[in-house]
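Hey team,

Sharing the Pseudouridine synthase run so nobody has to redo it. Sequence (318 residues) first:
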Amino acid sequence: MSYIREVVPKEYEGRKIRDFLKEKLGLSTRLVRGAAIDGRIKANNIVVKMNYVLKFNDNIEVNVSKNESQNIEPEKMDLKIVYEDEDIIVINKDPFMVVHPTKSHQSGTLANGVINYFNETHQSCIVRLVSRLDMNTSGLIIIAKNQYAHMALSKQNAMDKDKEGNIKEHSRDSIEIEKRYIAIVHGNLEATEGTLDLPIHRPGPESIKRIVDEQGQRSITHYKVIERLNGADVVECTLETGRTHQIRVHLSHIGHPIFGDTLYGSEDDEEYIKRQALHAYRLDFQSPRSKKPLSLRADLPEDMKKLIDSMSIKDNDK
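Structure output:
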């Protein structure tokens, strides 16, 4: 069970509990309605309905957990858990692993392993992905354990745009998630840091590949070169938007595709690395419940370390 507890302040006296839950606690209408139907909302230890009229100093309790099931087969895995609390679990995903089951990947996915972990640790949770990574991208992924945490984090996962294409600003109480990646790219970038503000478009409904095109959604990537190698750069990328393949598309478009990226770069990189050299190494955000700042990191995987070493050796041999 996972609970949110709050004492009613003077300004909410005489108002309906549904207003308090949505305005003060930031719960969605859907969550509040479901909790009320299931009898998971209490005032002073008594189950109440959404039209309950608040009194000053009422003790309000909402159980944000509910009995749910998911059609995902549990599988024993050695998960690299970086952080866990009552609302979220953050995992460092290995490369070559699909995040969630698909028609072609029903087993061996991260979700299969997480469901098994929840079962083994007696947690009544389903897998609610806050973020996703491509199969061949490694690094940090946030999974919410309940509807409340998923709602609070998902809407802040990436900036969105309005009808005019302007980036929307988040509300004062929003939880910003800053995602940083390490990429190893072909060639040396002219500028050591900068911003790529280039729209990304899906050219057809069946197309896997994305392109930079004015028809696309506004997409913003901030980059900084953190190490110069021989014919390559190690680049830190920070996302301001979260489009599919965003970093891969942007870096390829400016002439510096990621090593091992056969979709947007060369198919001849297998001697260096067997997948795209892209790793989600850092997450900065607030805990949805405590608002405590979290800064989580995941070390570079061995294949990317070896690639950096090999390019450095070439540099030293010159």
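Residues 158-165, 167-175 have pLDDT under 50 and may be disordered.

Ping me if you want the raw files.
A.
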